Amino acid sequence: MLLQAPGLAPGSTRRQAACSVAREASNVRPVTAPAVAPGRTGVSGRQTLPPARVVSVELEAPTLSTSPATVSTKKLFCEPSGQPASAAYGPALTGRPAPLGASIDADTGAINFSVFSSSADAVSLVLFTEADLNAGRATFEIPLDPYVNRTGDVWHIMLPDLRDDLLYGYRVEGLHQEADKEYPGMRHDTRRVVLDPYAVAVLNRRRWGQMGPNLPYGEEGVLGVMPTWPQAAAALPARRGATFDWEGDTPLNLPVESLVIYEAHVRGFTAHASSGVAAPGTYAGMIERLDYLKSLGVNAIELLPVFEFNELEYYSQIPGSDQYRFNFWGYSTVNYFSPMGRFSAAVGNGGPARASCDEFKQLVKECHRRGIEVILDVVFNHTAEGNERGPTISFRGLDNRVYYMLAPGGEYYNYSGCGNTLNCNQPVVRQFILDCLRHWVTEYHVDGFRFDLASILTRAHSAWHPQQYDQETGQRVAMSSGGAIVSAEGIMTDGAGVPTGYPLSDPPLVEAISEDPVLRNTKMIAEAWDCDGLNQVGAFPHYGGRWSEWNGKFRDVVRNFIKGTDGPWAGDFASAICGSPNIYANNTPHETDWWANNGGRQWKGGRGPHASINFVAAHDGFTLADMVSYNTKHNEANGENNRDGEQHNNSWNCGEEGPTAKWDVNRLRQRQMRNLTSALLLSCGVPMINMGDEYGHSKNGNNNTYCHDSELNYLRWDQVAEDPHGFNRFVRLLIHFRRATPALQRTTFVTEKDIQWHGELPNTPDWTETSRLVAFTLHDGKGGGLYVAFNTSHLPKLLQLPRWGGRVWQPLVDTSKVAPYDFLAVDGVLSAEDVAAARRQMAMWTADHTFPVLPWSCVVLQSAPEDPASTSMIKRASQRAAAPAGPSGPANPMTWATNFISGQPPTPSNAPRGGASGASPYGAAQTAYGANGNGNGGNVIGSYGSAATATTSSSAAARAASAAVAGSSRSASAPRVSPAPAAHSIHNNTNGHVAAAAKPAAGASSGGSSRSNWRAMLDEQQQAPAAAAGAGSWGMSSLASADSDNEGMTAAERAALEAAMRENEALRKRLGL
């Protein structure tokens, strides 16, 4: 006669009590269990116990009341269970089946232990002192009575008066497929003491990288696997009164569209010596440096895995190196409820294992104080136990068939690429994941989760038939297919006919997370693909828009367009700028999108731009700096002969592979980094910045630094402080600008009323496959807005700006300019006078509604109300211009426009000039604004393709003239500007303004100081070059003409015009015009 026990099939009932079987098991076992081979080797003759019942206890009569009441179960779960007391705890009690894990019983103050295992024959609670843990031996071992300490598939026991400093784990006895061939998928191993999946803190080694004890691992009675995998144990819960003081903290609940996310690694953030923190590489160290993130402008940090993992998992010497492999990133979870213990300064200094919990809570609280949300990168797709060759740490030893996705023969499905796949949609595992997320939200106040390889969460689980027993003997009955629930074709299924691993259109786990009331305001971000080719970007099951997605397509499109690749990239780039409506709004899938045309059809479209988490670089792959410095990956340092890592990086080295001394290559790289960052931060959607990219961190071309605990993965605080090229300042200002611009923080996609597309002429975009120009205006709904243009061609462009009545365009960003004039904002580097002077330099263009853009450059202009005073010079000149219409300058107007906009703008008054030593305005170290470090700007525009080569050797004159605009308001002690070339005869007058030494000359051409006057002077030189013989090729007669015809000009206006004319003279000479 057969009895049916509960199994994994949907709809199965709870395991029935076997009342006819006498209670023969002993309540007490030896302190140390005998060492046997995996599973039941050596005990095959023992009678297998059938499913057990809960002990029957008389209940107390309920007390009548007018309010609703329930029958007390205190007596049911607090009755003695037979295990004797010891010096460390009192007599054991039956215990409660819920909650799972170790908890303090509210009625008795005792510690309740509860663990799930449906396939175990026996379970023992193992207790350790830290000394015994380090010696690889158990301190106490308490066997659980399967008749008293078991409810269904949950084993439980309660210990009163338990010493607070003890640690615990479980020894689980049962079948193992190597010894019990007819039971594939079973992998119990009594040689191992396994971790409680619900453990709140874990201890085995106290400090990062510390090797475990050197024990005779493998010998009888020695726990642990090897020095890199010593025995681990869980901490007991904190006693009452030891609660953390949150000081009123709650999750911030910032709108997702307002976020600027910073992807960071806890250890990597402060491990470098230049961080200057007291506890480098820890939660406490990160707290010390949070003000940097606040000043940078980010309002969310996405932490790489902080669940307990083993950094020594891959520990071995890297071939050809003196370095060792580490599991640095942490994508290999050991325990999901525990903060990584070796990220804790308190634990490292000898504190209790639970100290890591309070230290992480302090980190979250301090982030919230600064308005920064905390998002955790979680790995529910696989665990550190790997495949059948991996160690038994926790899940495998408790219930391998339940926790992992298996084939009928017990083989591991490997959708994660890491050896195993968590059986996410199995009901027990589903509840485990949900409990874990709730724990981190309620206990740690985290604000969101990013799910690594989230597509695995949508795959059908594997299921097994419930074990059957002979009623008379209590022995297991062998089952066909080893108990696996297979289809007629022999394929593993979920018990309902769906093949294991098949993507589900309504995955139960994702639905449960989406609809959970505790997680209602928690941000959910999916990495919507896995390692078996399933890609669900744009159609991940989002349940009413609850989920955002890492948008890998945004990354690929932006990289391809910015480097100037032929293809559909201009149109795709425009869509990316809008938040990818082609992915998230369009409900018609592309014919090549298998998922969206099948199970994901219902999830396609209907979302807003905040569904897109935009990024151009992340922890895996090239950094931003390497993206513009390497064409191919260089992962030789990983010791795998460069076979690892992504092959398709869509990168461009700008003309030289790796580090180079070529100034023009380095300058172009700086420009491209700014272009990529501008594309990221000026796009709708939610931008994410990779740690270190804000200052240009390089990993030497290595795009897979998972195994390096070194400077490759450390934030270089010394480089942040130096900021030699001003890139950190540029990123910081652009982040703050984005956060202050509501038009970029959208919940709905832009319409034609919000955005217009342009080409070299307004409203004439070019969407061909050879297009290298994308320009647009974005309205702010208040009459203003932005004009943004990306020129990814090797040729400069002269763009005509759209005319908005009563408004003018003011330059804000120009990535072709050297710092600090790449971003015109008043800060500690540029004064208001500096910004105004720089904008006046460009007024000759903006007043005429044109703007020049250099090769591989981005410009951003802001619409502002027209100020008649600021354009009076140009208007007066236009009214008085008498010269007839004619050729407007050289045949290619950009040969002089290129020089004009690439010249070094006015040097700020507080910056070192002319090579003088001093503190960098960007950090603590001396620097120069020019990428060549000579202090004079030196912005050499190299010959990119057929573009004209233009240098700015005369840019000192432009700086002098521009600086003079605000000269009268500066301190007399400010550093002087380097003198202009003597041939130009420029000197400082008593007002601090720059004046020409020459007197006005007769016969000068008429025309104002506007752009038309400049053109007239160009025409004059072309038609009568000899007229300027007395004062250089331009001659002072031209300057005199401007002076005599513009008596109403201010000294500042005259100085700016003189400088621009002299710059143009030098350029024309070089170009042979």
Automatic annotation (TrEMBL):
Keyword Transit peptide in annotation: yes
GO terms classed as biological process: carbohydrate metabolic process
Region ranges (Disordered): 636-657, 870-920, 967-988, 1020-1049
Residue intervals of the Glycosyl hydrolase family 13 catalytic domain: 263-738
Gene Ontology CC entries for this record: chloroplast
Record keyword Transit peptide present: yes
GO-annotated molecular function: isoamylase activity
Record's subcellular location: Plastid, Chloroplast
Superkingdom: Eukaryota
Family: Belongs to the glycosyl hydrolase 13 family.
Protein name, per record: isoamylase
